[in-house]
Amino acid sequence: SRVFVDTSGILQPLLKGIAVQNDVPSQVQLMNQTLLIRPNLEAVTRELYLQLLDASTGHALCRVWNYVPAINAIGPGGLENYQAFSRGRALAFEEHLGAEFKRRLPAASAVGCDDEHLVVFFAANRGEPQHRENPRQVPAYEYPPQYGPRPPSFARATLVPRKDGRRDVFVSGTSAVTGHATVAPGDTVAQ
Questions:
Q1: pLDDT at position 60, please?
Q2: How is the chain split among helix, strand and coil, in percent rounded to 5?
């Protein structure tokens, strides 16, 4: 298998003002180290989402699956990795979609993984999806500051129209939340 890496796209913003070698093997090695280091999670998330949004130009995001390294671990500056991820994702959406980005947020989830890499999968569609919120829950993008410097950027569900008149539904999977508080942590039945 082959892997194509745009080293300049991700490394350039991270390495401003730092002298590095310009040969390709050194850039690939540095890229691997950069993506593996959790202190860069916010910057890597922002850049990855900007690339995702560029790649999906002409399509609307319907659902995003995020696998965040050590999601609940505390990273640099005392931020939980999920909070750093959320800030990077929000900055990318706002930068790419503008001030009204919240109305275009897709259904999404973020789960922790043991790997050191941030992994993101997405589904997009040419049609215009309908993003929905749960009336029993505060929209994630309006969460109070106790959840981090930028609230999570996702809708609770996305409805995607099909040509046959039916709709596909993508759900974010946050049923264990009322308002903005987690309900019955660790008790699946109560949730």
A1: 93
A2: 35, 25, 40
